[in-house]
Structures are given as C-alpha cells and as structure tokens.
Amino acid sequence: MSSLAPYDAIMLLSYGGPNGPEDVLPFMRNATRGRGVPDERLLQVSEHYKLFGGVSPINECNRRLLGHLRRELDQRGCDIALGWGNRNWHPFVSEGLRELADAGARRILALPTSAYASYSGCRQYREDIAAALVELEDTYAPGVLTVDKVRPYYNTDGMFNAQVRSIQVAYAKLAEQGFKPQQIKLLYVTHSIPLAMEAGSAPSAEELERFPRLANEISYVAQHQALIEALQPALEWALGVKQVNADLAYCSRSGPPHAKWLESDINDVLAQLDRDQIQAVVVAPIGFITDHMEVVYDLDTEAAQTAAELGLGYERADTVSEDPEFVSSLVDIMEERAAHARGESYEIVNTTGTGPFHTVCPPQCCRSGATPSRPGPDRFAPASAFNSFRS
C-alpha cells in the first residue's frame, strides 16, 4: 500500500500570476475582485511587472517545485498523480481539480504554497477548494470528489534546517565582502497582513474557554516568532557567535492607506538601523518558500535599493523550495495527513514546540477578521483585503 493511501492525487495550491504582459490586468482584476479598484489604479500598481516582462516568477517556481516533489515521491515509491491549481490565474483551482478528476482521481490531497496559517494562507484555500468542487458539479456529483489539505508546515524539520543553511550562506557572502558577524543585522521577512486578519488567525479567548484543545492554535505573527526563536540559537552555533542581532520585518503591504497592517516595513527598518553598529544586512524571507514577486521585487529590487542608498551591504538568503530536505518534509506532512485519513496513529514532528498542529483544520480556524467569530460549522468568510497585487 502506498504511504499516501487513500489519496490518489496531490494538488499544489498557489496564488497564481501572469504569464505575459497581456495577462497582467486580468490577473490583477481577479486578485482584487470585489474591492472596486478601477483599472487605472491597477495599471499604476502593475508597473513592477514591466521589469519582468509581464511574467510572474511564481509560475516557474511552482513548476520546479512540482518537479522536486515528483522526484521525492518516486524515491519513496509513491506513484501518485500531481496537479496544480491557482487562486487568481490559470490553472485555476477548478481547472487543476478537473484535470485530476478526469484522469480518475477521486480523493485528492492539497498542498498550499503557504507554510503558515492565516486566512489568506489557509482558510481561503479551503474556500477556493469548496468553490471549485461546486463548479465541477456539472460533471461530478456532490460527494464524488473529496479534497483534504495538509497542515501548516512552517515548523517542520525540513523548513528549519533549510532556513539555517540558507542564512549561513548569506552570512558567508557578506564575510567575503569584509563584513564581520557583529556588523550584520539579520532581518527575517514575511508578508504583511491586515491586523484584523492577524487577530483572526488564532482562537479568541471565548473559543479557548469553550474549546481548550485549540490552545496550540497560535497566530500568524506568533508562528513566525516561534520559528525565529528556534532558529536563533541554531544560527549562533552555526555562525560561531554569541548572539545574532535579528528582527522580524514585513513586506508587500497592499490595500488602502487607512487600513492597519502588520508593521514595520522592511524599508523602514533599514532606514532606522544604527549605522554606527550595523554595516550590512542579511534578509531571510522566512514567510515565502519560493522566489515569487514579493521576493524578487519587494526584496531583491526595492529593499536592495534602499540598502544601497543607505550604504549598507545586502544579501538576501535563498528561499527554501530548492532544498532537498525541505521538499522531503513536504512529503512527510502529506504522509502524516494520509495516516490520519487511514485512522492510524502518527507523530507530529516539529521544531518549535508550538502549533498550529491541526492535521484537519478546525471549522473556526484562520478567519479573515471581517466577520464575528462563531465556533461550530464552517462559515466561509467574505473575500479579504489581503489579496495582494503581487505574486
């Protein structure tokens, strides 16, 4: 029996991005659907795509990740179909799901490209799946297709070790330029989200009182902080220093200026560094597993330019999707979910000691913050303002 039984297909879930200049405006209309953003504003915001020929790097990143997953699955003897579906551009979730179903798949396991739990990175993908299943009812009756999702995987061994290696390499590159570790600031970076969504990413006090088992369901920010707390001593040992000077910063804020989002932006953090102490920065994009637009534009272009204007050395650590141990850890969590589906016992291996540990998402997890919290049956939240312009 396959270690992924009872599943007969895996589907990578991602945000999507344009494949050429003609795709940019329709893609951005999809990404901002329901928010009343005029095309004139979308065209202004899409200027950064011109630097990349109108092509989002996320698509090639996902193709490469699918190839890495295929090789890891083959090495484990898992002959299982692999598919791909996006929220905002082709192949849409419904298109990827239909392709797998037409090939005979009936029970499918979904793997989001977001490692952390939040509305946009977890619950909204569940909504995408639900909407796709309804769309496919013209061919497949309700109940014929079943789609499950893996748990958040920011705290896997593979994620942890890949981050340590990547950050080490970035420090080594700065050392070659003459910078000493004590002159370097490490900035862990992730995608900013609205404060309401951050609040909705963890159970409320009322929910914790009613459902004590949810105590491990920590918020989006707390998930990042837990990983950072685990990484710091490992990096200090690997770099041979007593203390790594580090902070968490955010990038890729979108939406109206009056909306409150997580801060501080990486460019603001760079501008506020004590130049008497800090001469260079390592930017570690722990919130992203691949080099998509938030990385290659917001970090490699904008933040790098800010650092150059400030006279700071700058190295961006690699994202983790090319690391074999990270890819292996993705298959590990698939096998964990499959064991749960078979009714078998399994061990959740994690490096932080904190959740979210749920193998099956609780109905009330990862709310958008736009609706009141109501424990009980799943209630799909309205589209969030977090649909970023970039991917």
From TrEMBL:
<feature type="binding site">
    <location>
        <position position="56"/>
    </location>
    <ligand>
        <name>Fe-coproporphyrin III</name>
    </ligand>
</feature>
<dbReference type="GO" id="GO:0004325">
    <property type="term" value="F:ferrochelatase activity"/>
</dbReference>
<keyword id="KW-0479">Metal-binding</keyword>
<keyword id="KW-0408">Iron</keyword>
<dbReference type="InterPro" id="IPR033644">
    <property type="entry name" value="Ferrochelatase_C"/>
</dbReference>
<feature type="binding site">
    <location>
        <position position="191"/>
    </location>
    <ligand>
        <name>Fe(2+)</name>
    </ligand>
</feature>
<comment type="function">
    <text>Involved in coproporphyrin-dependent heme b biosynthesis. Catalyzes the insertion of ferrous iron into coproporphyrin III to form Fe-coproporphyrin III.</text>
</comment>
<dbReference type="GO" id="GO:0005737">
    <property type="term" value="C:cytoplasm"/>
</dbReference>
<protein>
    <recommendedName>
        <fullName>Coproporphyrin III ferrochelatase</fullName>
        <ecNumber>4.99.1.9</ecNumber>
    </recommendedName>
</protein>
<keyword id="KW-0627">Porphyrin biosynthesis</keyword>
<feature type="region of interest" description="Disordered">
    <location>
        <begin position="370"/>
        <end position="391"/>
    </location>
</feature>
<keyword id="KW-0963">Cytoplasm</keyword>
<comment type="pathway">
    <text>Porphyrin-containing compound metabolism; protoheme biosynthesis.</text>
</comment>
<dbReference type="InterPro" id="IPR001015">
    <property type="entry name" value="Ferrochelatase"/>
</dbReference>
<feature type="binding site" description="axial binding residue">
    <location>
        <position position="15"/>
    </location>
    <ligand>
        <name>Fe-coproporphyrin III</name>
    </ligand>
</feature>
<dbReference type="GO" id="GO:0006783">
    <property type="term" value="P:heme biosynthetic process"/>
</dbReference>
<feature type="binding site">
    <location>
        <position position="294"/>
    </location>
    <ligand>
        <name>Fe(2+)</name>
    </ligand>
</feature>
<dbReference type="Pfam" id="PF00762">
    <property type="entry name" value="Ferrochelatase"/>
</dbReference>
<comment type="similarity">
    <text>Belongs to the ferrochelatase family.</text>
</comment>
<dbReference type="InterPro" id="IPR033659">
    <property type="entry name" value="Ferrochelatase_N"/>
</dbReference>
<dbReference type="GO" id="GO:0046872">
    <property type="term" value="F:metal ion binding"/>
</dbReference>
<keyword id="KW-0456">Lyase</keyword>
<keyword id="KW-0350">Heme biosynthesis</keyword>
<feature type="binding site">
    <location>
        <position position="125"/>
    </location>
    <ligand>
        <name>Fe-coproporphyrin III</name>
    </ligand>
</feature>
